Amino acid sequence: MTQDTLANRMMTWTRGNSNAAMLCLDLWHVVQTWDDLYDNDEVTKDDINETFRRLIYNIPTNPFYAEHAHELAPLIHNMMIQWQIANTFEVDQKSGDLNKAWMLRASIYQIWVYIAGLAVDPQWASVVGPDVWRTYGETLEKFIEEMTNA
């Protein structure tokens, strides 16, 4: 999915709340870069600079985030912890670990559903949630194959 397509979907999910949609995009960029850095994938200096700009400036000054930080900060922190647990499961690969790692890596989608609910209302989160989750493009089978062959 292209960045433009994702941005359009986020605007739909947040019913045009541009600050909420921008927060979703900023978080997406940050987690993608973090994952690339962690995996020693190629990351340009521009990507690193952009990620830190989003972390240090964009997210804290986003009006939507500022209004809902008391709810979003713990969820985002939990997302980070889940990602770290997923990394442990990927290394250990005990029975069922890869299935759990695949699930835990998708916690950003939970954040997006929650943001949609804050931007509109809780009922909307239930309505738009399936569309949000359907953007998770990596299948469990592909993930397990990738981790098994790594």
Strand content: under 5%
Helix content: over 70%
**Sequence of secondary-structure elements:** HHHHHHHH
Number of helices: 8
Give the end-to-end Cα distance, rounded to a whole number of Å: 24 Å
Classify the secondary structure makeup into a structural class.
mainly alpha
Structure summary, number of beta strands: 0
In round numbers, the mean pLDDT is 94
Short description:
By secondary structure, the chain is an all-alpha fold. It has helices at 3-13, 18-38, 45-61, 63-92, 97-105, 107-119, 122-134, 140-148.
What does the model show?
- This protein is mainly α and 150 residues long.
- It is 82% helix and 0% strand.
- It has helices at residues 3-13, 18-38, 45-61, 63-92, 97-105, 107-119, 122-134, 140-148.
- The longest helix has 30 residues, at 63-92.
- The two termini are 24 Å apart.
Name the descriptors.
150 residues; 82% helix; 0% strand
How is this fold's topology laid out?
Layout (H helix, E strand, L loop, with lengths): L2 H11 L4 H21 L6 H17 L1 H30 L4 H9 L1 H13 L2 H13 L5 H9 L2
